[in-house]
Design goal:
By secondary structure, the protein is mainly beta. 8% of the residues lie in helices and 39% in strands. β28 and β29 (441-442) form a beta hairpin. It starts with 9 loop residues before the first helix and ends with a strand.
Length: 498
């Protein structure tokens, strides 16, 4: 039995309570399903800490996931997704987001240490024709973050159609010695599952049991391309992987079983490279890995075990039924040419942020609830003591007018988070946190790193949380499940920091 980097194995996922949930399946045409192999698109990179603000115009577009087929999409400045934004520690980020879509949107700076008024959560939604200006000082370690729309009730469909992008934090004072030539040996990989109809148009449907499982697509895309191919140098290559899917969990590895090294987690570098042969990422989690292609003369495929098929979200995905493959292709890397000017060996240690959150001054218990208004929902409410809407936290569905917790600036708290009925990725705004234990077993912070998303199941996790940014009642921070359909359905709470 394979255990992933979260300490969660396939049996645990099955016991998360969702094996009986039927997953959606949308049949694509055989011709479309067989497509793939286009060059890996590399989003343009924009420095967002210059004298003039970077402008991101959110707009409707038309994107070809495979050549010759276009579908309506959304994007920040692009037809689909957005450019990679880069900011530097010790400087100020300057970003203007213009809404040229037909609906209210926001831009949440996921993982950024920003005050509540700049966070871009549900309270920060703004109408078509309006502009939202983000100005914040960057004072966090180097990390691979991201940004996405976060409008309550609409996050799932807006992110699914393209309102997302990467946000990189660099720290000039702490060089890491890792590959850093963006687009050459430092590659961004936004991994998403999408479904298409027979003409190649995006399909998004949250009816029926899809709400319970979260939307699972039947085609894997990276940076908006189906199973793309990337030319890489023969040498060390850094992959910045974002699980940008609405609900799908991945278990990444290479088709030849090769070893690679994880060098960073959600919120920054690890203390030292960690050798792995596979890497599990839940929705919204990020990881940076370094792969050595120096001895390769043939293509190497990045693949993923199908957690959905194994019980995480029910069966029937990625082709459906018992005939679905146990793994599926993500991207192919074709080594060629010289290694260039990048490093030839991994550093022994990395300038990771310290684990110095201090002793907790209080403890909070947080429960992620599923209580749909159905016969199953009635059973779930009785088992968990929940009441209210479709999804919730501690028995209450999200209410934009209600503050669920009040934190003190700079104080460390111990949060005990549990998910009795199903495995969920739990995200906290405005900070990073340290995972202390999972299922009562201590966690090694050197291999977990600093996190802003943690996988929670019935065994529960404990995390140390300290928020050093203020958030008032008008613009509070969020805590929520990052299965987008779950947060849209109310599995979200909000807190102030003062």
């Amino acid at each position: 039995m394979i255990a992933d980097s979260h300490g969660i194995n396939r049996r645990t996922l099955l016991l998360g309570g969702c094996a009986a949930l039927a997953a959606p399946f949308v049949l694509t045409s055989p011709a479309f399903a067989a497509e793939g192999g286009a060059a890996l698109p590399i989003p343009p990179i924009l420095d967002a800490d210059g004298a003039q603000p970077v402008t991101l115009t959110a707009r409707a577009g038309s994107h070809s996931f495979v050549p010759g087929t276009k579908t309506p999409t959304l994007g920040y400045e692009l037809d689909y997704l957005g450019p990679t934004l880069r900011v530097r520690r010790g400087r100020s980020a300057r970003i203007d987001v213009v809404n040229r879509t037909g609906d209210e949107i926001s831009a949440h700076w996921h993982g950024a240490f920003v005050p509540g008024k700049m966070d871009g959560g549900p309270q920060g939604a703004f109408a078509p024709g309006k502009t939202s200006s983000a100005r914040f000082d960057v004072h966090q370690p180097a990390a691979t973050l991201w940004y996405h729309s976060h409008v309550h009730g609409k996050t799932g469909t807006q992110v699914y159609h393209g309102l997302a992008g990467l946000l990189l934090v660099e720290d000039p004072a702490a060089p890491d010695g890792l590959p850093a030539d963006y687009g050459v040996n430092d590659l961004p990989l936004v991994v998403q599952d999408r479904s298409f109809d027979s003409s190649g148009r995006l399909v998004y449907n949250t009816s029926g049991m899809t709400l319970m499982s979260g939307f699972l697509g039947n085609t894997i895309c990276v940076n908006g391309a189906v199973r793309p191919v990337a030319d890489v140098p023969r040498g060390l290559v850094r992959l910045r992987i974002l699980n940008g899917s609405n609900a799908r969990f991945y278990d990444f590895g290479f088709d030849d079983g090769r070893q690679f090294h994880q060098v960073a987690s959600d919120s920054g570098l690890l203390p030292a490279p960690v050798a792995r042969t596979h890497l599990a990422l839940a929705p919204a989690e990020r990881a940076e890995i370094v792969v050595d292609f120096s001895g390769d003369n043939a293509p190497v495929r990045l693949v993923s075990a199908d957690f959905a098929r194994s019980g995480m979200m029910g069966g029937g995905m990625m082709g459906g039924g018992s005939g679905a493959p146990a793994t599926y292709d993500i991207a192919t890397f074709v080594p060629g040419g010289a290694a260039g000017t990048g490093p030839t060996a991994l550093p022994v240690s990395l300038p990771a942020p310290p684990f110095d959150l201090g002793a907790p001054v209080r403890t909070r218990d947080i429960r992620l609830d599923m209580h749909a208004g159905t016969m199953m929902g009635s059973m779930l409410r009785r088992l968990t003591g929940s009441n209210g809407g479709v999804m919730g936290i501690n028995g209450r569905s999200y209410d934009m007018g209600r503050i669920d917790a009040e934190l003190k600036l700079g104080e460390t708290e111990l949060w005990r988070v549990a998910a009795p009925m199903m495995t969920h990725p739990f995200h906290v705004h405005g900070c990073s946190f340290q995972v202390v234990s999972r299922g009562g077993q201590a966690v090694d912070p050197a291999t977990e790193g600093h996190k802003d998303v943690v996988v929670v199941d019935a065994r529960g996790v404990e995390i140390l949380v300290r928020v050093d940014q203020k958030a008032d009642r008008a613009t509070p921070f969020m805590m929520h499940c990052h299965i987008l359909e779950h947060e849209d359905a109310g599995m979200m709470a909000q807190f102030t920091v003062a």
